[in-house]
Design brief:
The chain has 146 residues and is mainly α. The chain has five helices and no strands. It is a multi-pass membrane protein.
Length: 146
């Protein structure tokens, strides 16, 4: 009770084999591949097919972890960049608010100091005018008539 394969399956396999052969021939006739195969590394890999297959499998398998790592690096760099910008904005905002507070305090202190200086000037001026009044000068000048 063994079923025979239909003839179309063998034709499909022959067609697939022909296409793969054409693909291999086109790759082998590529000028870059020919130049690589003439190099010492290409000749060494041609003499050691197991090493070539191992390198090819390693490159294919390691592509995903390397890609994930590079994605992680890029995302971490972007996060750090955004974090630095946010942190810098926070520092500038806090610094600006602190500067505003200091300047307001200095303005208030300037008003107090100006008021104190003006009041002191008025008091000293009044005391000087009271102590050295013009009538004392007049009396002093009249006594000194020589």
């Amino acid at each position: 009770m063994v079923k025979e394969e239909p003839p179309s399956t063998s034709k499909d396999l022959q067609d697939l084999q022909r296409r793969v052969s054409l693909l291999i021939a086109s790759v082998q006739s590529n000028s870059k591949v020919v130049a690589f195969m003439k190099s010492p590394v290409g000749q060494y890999l041609d003499r050691h097919p197991f090493l070539t297959l191992t390198l090819l499998v390693f490159a294919a398998v390691s592509a995903v972890p390397v890609g994930v790592f590079l994605l992680l690096v890029v995302l971490t760099s972007l996060a750090a960049f955004v974090g630095v910008i946010l942190l810098e904005g926070l520092v500038i905002a806090v610094g600006g608010f602190s500067l505003l507070c200091v300047l307001c305090g200095l303005g208030f202190m300037s008003l107090i100091m100006s008021g104190t200086i003006i009041v002191s000037y008025m008091v000293v001026s009044s005391l000087v005018n009271y102590w050295i009044s013009p009538r004392l000068w007049i009396q002093h000048n009249s006594n000194c008539d020589c």
